[in-house]
Specification:
By secondary structure, the protein is mainly alpha-helical. Helices cover 59% and strands 7% of the residues. The longest helix has 38 residues, at 7-44.
């Protein structure tokens, strides 16, 4: 620091540096808690088999998307689905989320409904549609 700074300026600069250090510590703690939460969700949902972190995050987000669509009586907007998926991974980027939607659409899990930006389950299963042997 320059010797020309007043005592007040030096004190404010130190306080800002302290706040930045605290913010960094809180962000580190948030990331650690987010990883622990993802691990707990993966274990609860039986995703221990996934070997890559991104695979577990993707499966959790896809499950959240499907659950939201199953619970909805009408088509659901992309933004609502994104908010639900972010509850599984706080660091989820919108571009990554859109790639999940594209992958799910390509697989036939979901389809667009009623216009751009709205989604629904591609095949609704009733309780009678359980796996049965084919004759």
């Amino acid at each position: 620091m320059s010797d020309k700074l007043t005592y007040f300026e030096k004190r404010l600069t130190r306080e800002l540096e302290d706040i930045e250090t605290k913010i960094q510590g809180l962000e580190d703690e948030r990331r650690a808690l987010s990883r622990q939460l993802a691990k707990a969700r993966a274990e609860r949902e039986g995703l221990k088999f996934t070997t890559r972190k991104n695979s577990a995050n993707r499966v959790l987000a896809e499950n959240a998307i499907l659950q939201t669509l199953r619970e909805s009586k009408s088509a659901v907007s992309t933004q609502v689905l994104f908010r639900e998926a972010r509850l599984t991974n706080f660091d989820l980027k919108e571009t990554t989320f859109r790639s999940y939607l594209h992958r799910m659409k390509k697989r036939g899990d979901i389809r667009t409904s009623g216009g751009v930006g709205y989604w629904e389950i591609a095949h609704l299963q009733s309780s009678d549609d359980t796996e049965r042997p084919r004759a």
